[in-house]
């Protein structure tokens, strides 16, 4: 533990010195994996809160054991303040654990799916928000997934909208490089069944992937880890340099049946770990949170926790 804190102090001093002399700290001043002793488990994730508030329900113990006790990313979007982000990263840091956060606030997000629409009200508002996000993490160790789906749904956008979005994503990568030196940030790169690897590589490059650690795949989807890793390696090959990638394994235990919105028969995947076919395997999507009013949850809005969905993921039904 003392080694961790000494490393953090030295990194913080280096970052402060860089700011004083007018330079930007490097994107990877220190590995957040090396600075911590495992992934942070959010005690207030939606499954944890449900299990706590419904202790008398016969499903609560199973949901707590199989889902709520595991490291799960926390998503931050509209309404998320810099102080809430700082508090979350700080809580993890206080336990010497590595938090996984998701930045999800682009204007016009989920352009094709439509179930998770919203986001910041303007380009300017987004730039202010994402800069504050990065600054709120500061020198604390963290992993951040930047804007799931942002580079996948171009077919539902005009060229002007695409250009505007790419500009916002580049700005986001620049802010994490400048303001969060001990964060591994990953631009989202869609999934194995959406955009051709070569096309996605071009989009990632245009969105500023060289400013950050790499990219994420399979966020909120169901493709197997092997299929996702194969796709990601093809993206890396097309990029032409060694970008790192992470895979969302939260619901990919049974693979994909070709449907993305609350499909039946899916199952929990391998919990968060270092390695496993990618730099990190992560539970980015919260298991049990609905994808939208569709599939086997036609009345449950996107992002709302459903114990029925959670149990089906536990059982693979």
TrEMBL record:
Q: Does the keyword Transmembrane apply?
A: no
Gene3D superfamilies to which the protein is assigned, alphabetical: 1, 4-beta cellobiohydrolase
Q: Which Pfam families match?
A: Glyco_hydro_6 (PF01341)
Family annotation (InterPro entries):
Beta_cellobiohydrolase, Beta_cellobiohydrolase_sf, Glyco_hydro_6_CS
Catalytic center residues: 149 (proton donor)
Question: Keywords, A to Z?
Answer: Carbohydrate metabolism, Cellulose degradation, Disulfide bond, Glycosidase, Hydrolase, Polysaccharide degradation, Signal
Signal peptide limits: 1-29
Known EC number: 3.2.1.-
Any one GO molecular function term: hydrolase activity
| Top-level taxonomic group | Bacteria
Query: Which PROSITE patterns does the record associate with it?
Result: GLYCOSYL_HYDROL_F6_2
The family line of this record is: Belongs to the glycosyl hydrolase family 6.
Q: What is this protein called?
A: Glucanase
The organism named in the record is: Streptomyces polyasparticus
Organism phylogeny: Bacteria, Bacillati, Actinomycetota, Actinomycetes, Kitasatosporales
């Amino acid at each position: 533990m003392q080694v961790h804190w000494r490393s953090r102090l030295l990194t913080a001093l280096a970052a402060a010195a860089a700011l004083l002399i007018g330079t930007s700290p490097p994107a990877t001043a220190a590995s957040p994996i090396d600075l911590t002793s495992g992934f942070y488990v959010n005690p207030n994730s939606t499954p944890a809160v449900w299990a706590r508030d419904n202790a008398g329900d016969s499903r609560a113990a199973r949901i707590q054991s199989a889902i709520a006790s595991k490291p799960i990313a926390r998503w931050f979007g509209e309404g998320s303040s810099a102080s809430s982000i700082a508090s979350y990263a700080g809580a993890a840091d206080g336990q010497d654990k590595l938090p996984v956060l998701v930045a999800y606030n682009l204007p016009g997000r989920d352009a094709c799916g439509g179930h998770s629409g919203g986001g910041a009200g303007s380009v300017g508002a987004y730039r202010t928000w994402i800069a504050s996000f990065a600054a709120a993490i500061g020198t604390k160790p963290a992993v951040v997934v930047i804007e799931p789906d942002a580079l996948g749904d171009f077919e539902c956008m005009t060229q002007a909208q695409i250009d505007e979005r790419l500009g916002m994503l580049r700005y986001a990568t620049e802010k994490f490089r400048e303001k969060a030196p001990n964060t591994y940030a990953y631009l989202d790169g869609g999934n194995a069944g959406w955009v051709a690897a070569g096309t996605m590589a071009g989009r990632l490059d245009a969105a500023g992937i060289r400013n950050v650690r790499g990219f994420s795949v399979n966020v909120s989807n169901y493709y197997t880890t092997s299929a996702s890793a194969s796709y990601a390696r093809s993206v890396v090959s097309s990029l032409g340099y060694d970008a790192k990638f992470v895979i969302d394994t939260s619901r990919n235990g049974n693979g994909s049946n070709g449907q993305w919105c609350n499909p039946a028969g899916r199952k929990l995947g391998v919990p968060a770990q270092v390695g496993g076919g990618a730099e990190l395997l992560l539970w980015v999507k919260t298991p049990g949170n609905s994808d939208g009013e569709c599939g086997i949850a036609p009345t449950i809005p996107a992002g709302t926790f459903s114990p029925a969905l959670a149990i089906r993921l536990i059982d693979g039904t």
